Amino acid sequence: MALLLLPNGNAVSPHLIKALRRLDAARFVMLNEYGKLIDIDERDETTPEDKRAVSEAFMTAVVEVIKDGRRWTQPDWASIREKALADLAVRRQAKGTKPNATA
Fold first, then answer.
1. What pTM was estimated for this model as a whole?
2. 70 near 42, Cβ under 8 Å?
3. Cα 4 vs. chain centroid, distance in angstroms?
4. Which uninterrupted H or E stretch holds 27?
5. Distance between CA atoms of residues 74 and 72, nearest Å
6. pLDDT tens across 40-83, in order?
7. Residues 6-39: pLDDT tens digits?
């Protein structure tokens, strides 16, 4: 059984993930079968909006791994992070807003 390597360097078996939880507005964690919370990514983004976008993208990737069952493949976390931040930049540009580091 292969382990899912997380962006923060931790490894977990996708079969042991029992729940996905939102801890606050900008952070998701996984709950394993032993009740331990596992952070997906511990890297701080520049704004809470950035952290939320990256966290949601990572969570979507984890959900896809769980759905794929035995046929899952290791996600490319760097490209997922870049795509999430690029999508957020496009949304900000469409709204005409700039990042707010104090939000």
1. 0.81
2. no
3. 13
4. strand 27-32
5. 7
6. 877 777 788 888 888 899 999 999 998 998 889 999 999 999 99
7. 888 888 988 889 999 888 877 888 998 888 988 8
Question: For the chain, what's the residue count?
Answer: 103
How many Cα atoms within 13 Å fall on the side-chain side of residue 17? Answer: 23
Q: Number of C-alpha atoms within 13 angstroms, CB side, residue 76? A: 6
Residue that has been written with the tokens 């997922």 in this structure = 80
> CB–CB of 99/49 below 8 Å?
yes
Strand partners, 38: 30
Q: Report the interhelical angle of 48-68 vs 77-95 (nearest 10°).
A: 130
**Beta partners for 11?**
5
Q: Which amino acid is at 4?
A: L
CA angle 4, 30, 41 (to 5 degrees): 70
